[in-house]
Structure formats: structure tokens, C-alpha cells
Write a structure and sequence with these properties.
single chain, about 150 residues, 2 domains, three-stranded antiparallel beta sheet, two-stranded antiparallel sheet, 7 strands
């Protein structure tokens, strides 16, 4: 490990205290990439808190979903975003394709769905949280309707 000059050491410590990253310090001072990390550890200076990269959104997935819906009469919601090849309302969140119906289901229930999430109302393409259900929910509804109808 080569020794560094007092001037370089002072600049390194100053940059660490200002919140510079180890990589930036090494590049600026012409040091090995491990030297700033070693000094950071010896001086008990925590890692810098960096802002999220510009390609990363700071909105939640629910907010991204909300930006693509339009309220309709009767509490239904129309999807204004894109549809996949099968006609299912979808959007990208953090570079991942996401089903609008799945997010609507999570908004209502607070859990991930089991099986496909489908609208249970007659409004075409509705994505209102109250109008979508997963497989167990549909099975439960069918069972309750059969009991009420006396077919069970």
C-alpha cells in the first residue's frame, strides 16, 4: 500500500466529510479505489446518501396506477393506459410490466392475488379496486350465490 502525501490525505478527508463517493474521490485524487473506503472506515464516516438516479421514479406503484385511471359513473374506473397483446390493462413500473388489475386488487385487499385478477362487474375494462377479484374471491362469490339461490 503506497503512502499518500499529507496534501492528498487532507483533500481525501475533506471530500469524505463533504459526502463524496469513494469512486469519485479515487478518480479525482488518482487513488486506488479502495483507499477512500479504507479512510472512510478508519474515520467512521458513513457512506454518502445519494439521490435516486433520474431513471428511477419516486412515486409509488399505486400512484403510477392512479395516473392511468379515469373515474366513471357508479364507482367504476376506466383504464387510460396501454393494453397488452391480450387486451389486459398494463403499465410499466420501474421497467417491469405490471397488470393494472393486480394493483387495483392490492389496493383493495392489501395482498397479492391468487390466480388471475378479473373484473367482476359489467363495465367493460373496469379496473376499479371494488370491481376486481382473484380466483378465490370469484369461487367464494359463486359459492355464496349458489347458497342464496338454493342450488347447493
Amino acid at each position: 500500500m503506497p503512502a499518500i502525501s499529507d496534501t492528498t490525505r487532507s483533500r481525501l478527508i475533506g471530500l469524505l466529510e463533504q459526502g463524496a463517493t469513494d469512486r469519485a474521490i479515487a478518480a479525482e485524487l488518482g487513488l486506488d479505489k479502495n483507499t477512500p473506503a479504507r479512510y472512510r472506515h478508519q474515520l467512521s464516516i458513513g457512506r454518502p446518501i445519494l439521490p435516486p438516479p433520474p431513471s428511477r421514479t419516486t412515486i409509488t406503484i399505486e400512484q403510477a396506477w392512479q395516473a392511468n385511471v379515469r373515474p366513471l359513473d357508479g364507482g367504476h374506473m376506466q383504464w387510460t393506459g396501454r393494453l397488452n397483446n391480450a387486451g389486459v390493462p398494463t403499465f410499466s413500473y420501474r421497467a417491469r410490466p405490471t397488470s393494472a388489475r393486480v394493483i387495483a386488487f392490492r389496493i383493495r385487499t392489501g395482498r397479492d392475488p391468487v390466480g388471475y385478477v378479473k373484473p367482476e362487474c359489467d363495465a367493460p375494462g373496469c379496473v376499479a379496486p371494488r370491481c376486481v377479484d382473484d380466483r378465490p374471491g370469484r369461487e367464494n362469490t359463486a359459492r355464496l350465490l349458489a347458497e342464496l339461490g338454493g342450488t347447493r
